[in-house]
Every structure is written in structure tokens, then in C-alpha cells.
Amino acid sequence: TCGGSGAMGGSASLIPRDLLGEYQELTFLSKQEILLAYKRFSELLPKEERENACSTRVPKSQILTLPELRANPFQHRICHVFSTSETRDDSMSFEDFLDMLSVFSDSATSDVKSHYAFRIFDFDDDGTLDRKDLEQLVNCLTGQGEESRLSSAEMEQLIQNILDESDIDKDGTINLSEFQHVVSRSPDFARCAAHQRVA
Amino acid sequence: DGNDDNEEGSAVENEETAKGTDKGRKKAEPRTRRAHARGRDRHGDEEDEDDEDGTRRTGHRRHRSRRRGRAGGNEAGDSDMEPAKARKNQANQKSKEDDEEEEDEKGGKGGKGKNEKKGDKKSDKKGKKEKANKKKKDKKKSGSGSDSESEEEPITEEELAKLKEEVEEKKKLIATLRNKPWKMKKKLSVLKEAQLFVEKFEGALGKGKGKKFYAYKVMMTKKWMKFQRDFENFKTACIPWEMKIKEIESHFGSSVASYFIFLRWMYGINMILFGLTFGLVMVPEALMGKPYGSLPRKTVPRAEEATAMNFATLWDFSGLAQYSVLFYGYYNNQRTIGWLKFRMPLSYFLVGVGSIGYSFMVVTRTMAKNANDDGGGDDTSFNFSWKMFTSWDYLIGNPETADNKFASITTSFKEAIVEEQESRKEENIHLTRFLRVLANFLALCTLAGSGYLIFFVVRRSQQFALEGLENYGWWERNEVNTVMSLLGMFCPTLFDVISSLENYHPRIALRWQLGRIFALFLGNLYTFIIALMDEINLKARYLLSFTLEEEKIVKYNMTIWEASLYNGTIPENSTAPPIQVDPADVPRGPCWETMVGQEFVRLVVSDMMTTYITILIGDFLRAVFVRFFNYCWCWDLEYGFPSYSEFDISGNVLGLIFNQGMIWMGSFYAPCLPAINVFRLHTSMYLQCWAVMCCNVPQERVFKASRSNNFYMAMLLFILFLSTLPAVYTIVSIPPSFDCGPFSGKTRMFEVISETLEHDFPSWFGKVFGYASNPGLILPFILLMVLSLYYLNATSKSYKEANLELKKKLQSVRIEN
After folding, report:
1. InterPro entries, from UniProt (chain B) (predicted)?
2. Partner of A73 for a Cys bridge, out of A140, A144, A152, B569, CB 3.0 to 4.6 A?
3. Which value, in Å, is the radius of gyration of the alpha carbons in chain A?
């Protein structure tokens, strides 16, 4: 638990030192980044709840007001994957928030990134990327407007090409190891970093 | 070894351990296949696992202590297992328990990542069976009657080693915890457990001999890790401009931000170069060398004294600025200066060579790192998948940029599909080919024209210099620099217009554009150098043919002139005259190095001015115009003709690279160049950050930053190589001026090395060096390097082919299955 000192001065005093040390141990973030994340997180809460930021959950609508998530086509999936809420309402606690920042940070390994990327892209949460998942993925990427969407023939062709490239065992779906095999060779993936603007 | 009380899974484990594989978890394949098949079952079992976890955890401590207790005790209970195996089994099981907790978060995701080696083992859902198994074992062990609680029994060497191994495993687990894709809660609990275990048993390990030393070692390791972590934090905090760049990333995406990251990296390199030249060349001369006015070469000549302090002269880097530590000519050729016996000429030479060497090392290291990240460069095999999975730029936080990104992704999808679908039907291939040839011809003409113009202008400026610059106005003085900057500004636009003839795919057109601009800058720079060198060579040839003569003449003139002060006889040896002659009046010899240095400094300064003015006019004024005149204009300025400008990444990066090339070329003759460049980059950063946020809009067509990175690095390396050629040439083959600089009086600049070897090193060193620089030794060395290059190239090719073969085999095996 976070010792809530009455004063708002110095966010360092709001996370106890040993917990801060553990967070540094368990995430790819540095101490300053964790403290900044704490500040940003507590700003998402209404004033009364800010002292207990460590243990409160922020509802999904609030999280999505962060600029990088707002512009992101996978915003809902990201919240869903990182949330540990028992009520499945995709609300995030501070630790979930740290998890998310850690995975997206520059220093995270490509293994952990690809693991989470797979879960984000798996729209139906069944452990594999099948055609429906890929279709939804393409629709997310091409934006909301009707004119920017692909026609169904183009969609078919695209998905077929992707499966030809990535589906090694030819079972019609992409599983985690195939996904990791494909994505780890990409030069862009390692740099897929979102330094969430925590200042 | 069949063990009755062990179930099937553990039996396999025991076999593995029996075979002596320490880390038995390497045998992952059988488990994954089973895991795969059980993927569906996992959901059902999940909830049960959660319940079991809790009880199991409490059971752990008891379990462990019991096991420890029988460490020295008799193993009669497990008579069917050998002691070593028993302990290994225990170790395996223990870590198995810890890792099993991961399953409740992993859910039903099929398959595991590569680093989940331990996890793979746990993935077979024998959880319940294993738990039952353990309970049985417990009972058996406790039933075996060994005194479970005795910690006081002496621990044998073997057990000590075992324990150590377990502690090491725990430590490794702690270190790699952040790599595991678990939820924070779970990571925290695993961490706490592992830490408790390590704390508890590290003490135990220390028993016996060397306890104090072990404890000390442990404490030092902890302190070292804490120090490392703090140092990492400190280093991250020291990185300048991080927030500015993040803001730009969020607004424009990663490709624009990559320019600023490149700028920051260049700034770092220039800081190091600045440190070298400032600390080892400029400061020692200023502090310990003879002061201004004591020597002829350090004083402004009487003729120029009147204008020496004018701002116009200073801006032109003549007058007082020329006769200072900023330029080559000021330095004295004394072998050692000051009470420190600082070897000035040697330091000057080594700093020059060292800067070049450092730059090479840094650029090559960055290229190698980028090549590593590229991961082998399998460009075409995953085209679509990469477009799908990795095209989104997670740094974008601005809705307009996001919209542009969406549009760009859609276009790239459609293009890729079309390219894949139909073969290229070249409509009217002949016309296209003709137009492309025409375009290339026009581009070549432009390049040749600009080269000739520069040559012409440089020649003219030499003439002006000969006739005395005072007769001419501002334009004639700065003709060369202005012309070069203007060419650099307008020719790329010309290339843009030419490229519209060619009708290429935008990415290919961009490459052609970059190539042409590169050729333009390179051509300009080299023409400039050649023109300068021509002039220097003329002077040098003149000097060479008359050198000794001229030296004698000048020296004779000097002595005559000194003698005229005596009103008497001409002294044979010019010993220290009793009359102090003002150095300002002494006639001077020519000093081409300072002249070259001055040219470069002027070029850099004018380039800097041009860039800033272009930004202010081209971006800022244009944005102001579009914004405020839109109300009273006939057509929509924002969507129509001028509109807001986009940030030109490639143009700016090329400008930066060529600026750096000029610095590398000129810093041997003007030690102040790195300092000027540091100042320039510093102000550039702020000005361009402001300009980009204030006046630019996000680009419509977005290209990836990553793949270009190594392309720019390769250009930088090429420029570095080309920039150092002129300096090396002058060091090796042109004699230094006899009247100025740290190498005056020598026939070649590099003689300072042999001089140092003679005077400052023991004689055998000189001999060794002499042998080493024998061509008979150097040629075989070069041959050896060429051979090793060839060998490494061949090896890397064979690895790539082997890679392809394995991939094909993988596919065919799967198909067969």
C-alpha cells in the first residue's frame, strides 16, 4: 500500500521506497519514469481519490483520454489485455498501468513485446489469430472512414497473402510462436516504442 | 529408473536429471506438444490451479524446511532413488512449483515464447497429479523417520554446491523476472518469494570456511547492483532534450523525430571532438604557450592593425581572430612548452588523427548495432505480415497525424495488393524509358553546371585576394560561400521538378532524389576542395621550387632589416638582439594552412546562416502568410498552393551530414571548428524544434524511419572517409609553411612522430617502430586483412544460405505433417 501523506508535495513520498525498488526491478522503467507515471496516473483520478492512487482503479473511459491511446486504433484491446480487473470492465490499476508502460518502453525485449502484441491482436481471445481476427485487425488499421476501408476482394487477397507468409504449419491460423517468428525479424518491431508522454 | 511413487511426468524429469543434464528444463519439445494439445483444457483447469496455488504456497515453506532438514540425514526413505538424483529432483520440483503460478495468467494462449524454457516444462497440466505426488512424497519422507528439523547437521560439500546452485537459479529468476509476460501482482509475489529464499539460504551457505568472505562478496554484489541501477537512472536523466523530442514524436510520428535523434547524436560526437581540440590543443597553447604579441606569428601585422578589431573583420575571421588559438598559424613550433613540458606539436598532430579515428569508430559501431537490429535483412519474405503487424506508429498522439497514418497504411496495403496481383503492365514503356533517360541527363547537366560554377567562383575569389580585398564590397568577399549555399538550396528543388518526368513509385523516386542531392553536395564540396588545393599546390610548387631560396631570401631580408636598426654591421648569427623589435613589424611568410582553415570556417558560418534564414523565411513567414492572408485571398491558401510546409527529413539529414563533413575536413587547420559546430547544433536543435511544432504540418505520405537509418549512417561513413582524404593528403605530401603553425621548420608534418620517438622514448622503441613500419611487414599485414575480410564475407553468405535452407525445411516438414 502507498502511505498517503496528506501533502501533495513530492510524488516520491507517495510510493514507499521498497515498493519503488521492486517496481524498478520488475519493469523496464527507470525511477524517474515510474514517478512520472505515478503523477500522470493520479491526474486521471478525481481529486479525492488521488491519495490512494496505488490501490484505486481508473475506469477505461479515463484511460482512453491519454493522447497516445486516444489516437491508437487498438486502444480498447490494449486496455483489455493489460487490465487485471475482476469485473472485466477493463479498468486499470496503477500496477496495470506500469505493466503497460513497461512493455511499450524502449528497453523491453522483443520477446515480451511480441507476446503482448499477440494478445492485443487476438480479438476473440482464443489463443490464435484466425481469419476473423485478421479482418478486424485490417479494419482497425485502415481507419474509420468508409472510403478508406478495403473492399472484400482486397481483404480476402490480403489475408490470404498474410497467411501464406506467416502460417508455417498451414492450419489456417497464426499461433504465438509463428507470430513471434515473423515479427522478431522485422526491423520496425524493436522500435515499436511508445514512450507514453508521462510529463 | 522407474520410480514407483513418481508419476509419469516426474519420471521423465528424473530420467533427465539422471542423465546428468543439470538444467533439465532444456528438454522442452515433448512438453510443448503436449501443451499444445492441452491448450483447450487449460481454461477448465485454470480455476482449480488458483485454489491450489494458495494452499501450495503455504505448503512450500514446510516442504522446503523438511527437505533441508534431511539434507544431512539418511536417505533411507527414498531407497529407490540415489541421493544426488533425489536432491536434483527436489530442486526441479521446487522451481516447478514457482513457475506453475504463471499459468493462471497465461490462460489458454497456445505455445510459449522462446525464453519460456522453464515454463515449457510446467506447461503440461499435471498440476493436480504433481501436487498429489508431492504430498505422497512428503508423507514418505516424513515417514522415513529422518530428523527433519535438524539444521545443525554438518552440510556436505555436495549439498553445499547444490544449495549454491539453487540460490543462483533464484537470483537468475529475479534478474529475468521483468522479461516474463506476467501481471505485476504475480511478479511481485514471485519476487518476494525468491528474495526470501535467497536471503534465508545465503546465510546458510556461508557456514564453514570462508563464511566472512562469502558474506562480504554478497554484500558487495548487492551494493554494486544498486550502484548500477542508480547509474542507469542518472544516465537516462542526463540525456538532453528528451521531453522536446517526445513531444515531436507524439505530434509527428517517429520518422520526423528520427531526424532530431540523429541531431542529438551528432551533438554528442561534436562535444567529444570539441573536448579533444579545446582541452588538448587550444587551452595548453593559451595557458602555457607564448602570449599574444611575443612572436611574429602571434601578432597582427602592422598593416592590418588598424582594422584588426572591427566587427566586420572579426566576422570574416581575419584580424584578431586569425592571430589567435582559433587557427593553425598561431601555434608555435617549440617542442615542449611550459613547466609541464607539454609537447604541443605532438599533441596537435595526435588530436587531429585521434578525432578522425574516434569518428570512424563511433560511426562504424553505430552501423554495426543498426545492422544487428535489422536481424539479417529478410526483406521480402514477410512483406504483408510486417505491414499488418508493425506498421502502426505507437508514438503518435495527435489525431491529425493518426489520420494521415491511417490513410498511408491503407494506400500501402492497396498498392501492395495490386503489385502482388498483376504483373507490371508497362503502358508505353518506350516513352517512360525515354523520359527517364532525359531526366537523368538533365540531372547530370545540373550537377556539372553547379560544379563548374563553384570552380569558377573560387578562382575568382583567389584573384580578388591577390588584388587585395579592400577594393571589393560584401558580395565579392563572400561570393564563394553564398554561391555554395544558394546552390544547396535551389538545386534540390530543381531535382524535384525533374523527377516528376520520371513517374516512379514514390519510394523509388525518394531514393533517386536522395542520391542526386548527395551527388550534388559531394560534387560541390570536392570541387571546392580541388580549387583550394589547386591554389595551395600552386603555392606549394612555387614554394618547393623556391623554398630554400625563398627562405633564405626572406630570412636575409629579415636580418638586413634588423641590421638596419643597428645602423651597423650585418650580424652573422641572429642572436637575441639587444633592441626589442616589435613582432608586428616583422615581415611574414605565407601561411596556407590558416587560409584553408579560414575558408572552412567561413563556409560553415555562412551555411549556418543560410539554414536559419531558410527556416525563418521558408517555414515561418510562409506559415504566417498562409494563416493571415487566407481571409482575403481568392483561393484557399491552406489547401492550395503554398499551404503549410512539411518537415523535409531527407533534406535536413543530408544537410547535417555534409555540415559534419566540412567540420571533419577543416578541423585540422582550424581547431575552433568543433566549437563553432557545437554552438551551431545547439541552436539548431532549439530553432528547429520550435519551427517544426509551430510552422509544419504532419506529412501526408509517411515513410518508415527505421530502414533509412543505416542508409544515413552509410552516407555519413562515406563522407567521413572522403573528408579525411584531403587532410591526410596534406599531412603526407605537402610541406608545412615555414613561418607559422606547430610544424614549421619540418619538411613534412608527420615528422613530429619520429622526432618524438627519438627524443622521448628509449632507443629500442624507435628500433621496434622502425621495423614495424617497414613496407615488408606492412604489405603482408594488409594482405592478411583483405583475406580475413573475404573469409568473413564468405562465411556470412554461407550462414544466410543455411538459414534459407532451414526455413524451407521447416516448411516442408510442416506440410508433411
Report:
1. TMC, TMC_dom
2. A140
3. 19
